[in-house]
Amino acid sequence: MEAEAVAKRLREDGTEDNGAGGVSSIVEDGKTMDCISTVIPGWFSEMSPMWPGEAHSLKVEQILFQGKSLYQNVMVFQSSTYGKVLVLDGVIQVTERDECAYQEMITHLPLCSIPSPKKVLVIGGGDGGVLREVSRYSSVEVIDICEIDAMVVDVSKKFFPKLAIGFEDPRVSLHIGDGVAFLKNVPEGTYDAVIVDSSDPIGPAQELFEKPFFESVARALRPGGVVCTQAESIWLHMHIIEDIVSVCRQIFKGSVNYAWTTVPTYPSGVIGFMLCSTKGPAVDFMHPVNQIDENDSFNKAKGPLKFYNPEIHSAAFCLPSFAKRIINSETG
Ligand code: SPD
To answer: Does ligand 1 come within 6 angstroms of the Cβ of 127?
Structure first.
């Protein structure tokens, strides 16, 4: 979806595009460090046409890295309250303090829903956090990751070693390239699970929210295989979610469910996941079939889970009434 289309969609929702154009700013001594104007000096404020009229801010201790890759602006700063923060094109991707809520949920919701996952593909996820979580499964034999931006991997290895440790698992093969193209070359029925850890549908991740991509994912999965994709916020993006649910219901002939979690530094403080399975052995996403052995020697995370547990797994599928009405109306 084009940036302008996203903004238009949001305007149709009764809100207004603030004209910020998807940029965010750090203001120091009255001078902007990274694009636009004014919020609070010494603070990072996250603005985007995807969440018009609001901007969550974090106090900046120090900017640690600023670069421009082939695809996007990449920045790392030390915040006062959330540790180091990774920002792509002005949008927060990871903070050291709350990354566990996102990485654990996007990984364990799908992988705990099928018995003995063996072959896993991660699209995006160049910070390594999802790999770290996949490494907890001793049943897994192959972990492929396709990340478009090598700079994200390099920056994570330098500034986020607790996430990038995921790359040290010998089962991991890193492919730098376009996830859409990668999937087209995958033999049919290869993977038990695909995890799409993308940024928002403005910029390099745009195609990962479109129907042809979901068709390729379905083709790459074995019968009864599962996909979990980043699926935005019920508070901000119900129209986007509605579209994704509708596309997924056309393509995935097993289960199609929406789950969500809290991530304080993401816009609106929550983010969702689309979980689908292909036709084949039935998958009941709401009732996990695997327990994670936190002491497993395969486990690169080297520590207990911080967020995920079987109770929060099932609870993640309970939706507020306004979202339930819209998402369930897509079930037909
Ligand atoms: N609005 C930001 C959503 C970012 C989701 N992807 C984060 C990548 C963490 N591995």
So the answer is: yes
Closest-CA residue to 236 (of 11, 19, 3): 11
Strand order in the sheet with 270-277: 172-176, 142-147, 119-124, 191-197, 221-230, 270-277, 256-262
pLDDT in tens, 177-232: 999 999 999 999 999 999 999 999 988 888 999 999 999 999 999 999 999 999 99
Distance (angstroms) between ligand 1 centre and the Cα of 99 equals: 9
Would you say 42 and 27 are in contact if contact means Cβ atoms under 8 Å apart? yes
Which residues make Cβ contacts (< 8 Å) with residue 275, sequence separation at least 6? 109, 110, 113, 226, 227, 228, 255, 256, 257, 258, 259, 285
197 as an active site residue: the answer is: yes
Whether residue 290 has its Cβ less than 6 Å from ligand 1: no
CB contact set of 163 (below 8 Å; sequence gap of 6+): 94, 99, 103, 127, 128, 129, 132, 156
pLDDT tens sequence across 52-65: 999 999 999 999 99
Q: Which of these, 228, 201, 320, lies nearest to 270 by C-alpha position?
A: 320
Contact 100, 80 (CB under 8 A): no
The catalytic position among 192, 197, 200, 243 is 197
96 CA distance to ligand 1 centroid (A)? 13
DSSP string, 35-60: SS--SSBTEEEE--TTSTT--EEEEE
Is 266 close to ligand 1, i.e. is its CB under 6 Å away? yes
Q: In testing the pocket of ligand 1, which one of 56, 200, 274 has its CB within 8 Å of the most ligand atoms? A: 200
Ligand 1, atom 10, lies closest to the CA of 125
Average pLDDT, the chain: 89
SS3 label, residue 307: coil
